[in-house]
Amino acid sequence: MKNSAPFIKLLLSGGLLAASGCGLYDVTPCPAGPAPVAPVVSAPTPPPPAPIAPVEKTVLISKPITITGINFKTGSAQLMGTDIAVLDKVAAFAKMHPDATLDINGYCSKTGSYAYNYKLSKARAGSVAGYLENRGVAADRMTVKGHSYEDPIASNKTPEGRFKNQRVEINSSVMLRSTVK
């Protein structure tokens, strides 16, 4: 065992190392200092949710329109000069709203028979429709009705009241776009 001395030395030094807790093949760390601590990584905080925008939608709303201010002399279906400005506005309205239909309603004061006033009230509505047609409003967009002396808006006992009742009213509905939340 001549050559056994280095082996014994190696064996003894390995035993000393093993006794100290450190070894060549030992899995436990050497007691050189405190074991390193891995840093704690926290998960990132998610951003707050975006605010919810109000829901908007566009709807069509029907808006009724009544046009007044078209009056006639007793027994006449002829338009007066003051009616022209009103009817020009109606024609402009009809051009701006090509889907709108116009209900043209003629009325009379209560002078004369119902039948006479019915015919006159229809002629008054027709006079208005003819004017509007000459201004570019299509005839198929207009409905003409006579109402005789029904639905007075003033007393038939005074000249002023009768003049107010000798009228044409134009009714229409337009569809307007509106945004709602």
The CATH superfamily of one domain is known as: OmpA-like domain
CATH topology of one domain, by name, is 60s Ribosomal Protein L30, Chain: A
How many H/I helical runs?
A: 4
How much of the sequence is in beta strands?
15-25%
Total number of β-strand segments?
4
Task: Estimate the helix proportion, in percent.
Answer: 25-40%
Would you identify the CATH architecture of one domain? Answer: 2-Layer Sandwich
Mean pLDDT: 82
Question: What profile does the largest beta sheet have?
Answer: 4 strands, mixed
**Rg estimate, integer Å:** 50 Å
Distance between the termini: 101 Å
The CATH class of one domain is identified as Alpha Beta
Uncertain spans, ≥5 residues at pLDDT below 50? 15-23
The coarse overall form would be rod-shaped
Run of helices and strands: HEHEHEHE
Strand order of the largest sheet: 1-4-2-3
Class based on secondary structure composition and strand pairing: alpha+beta
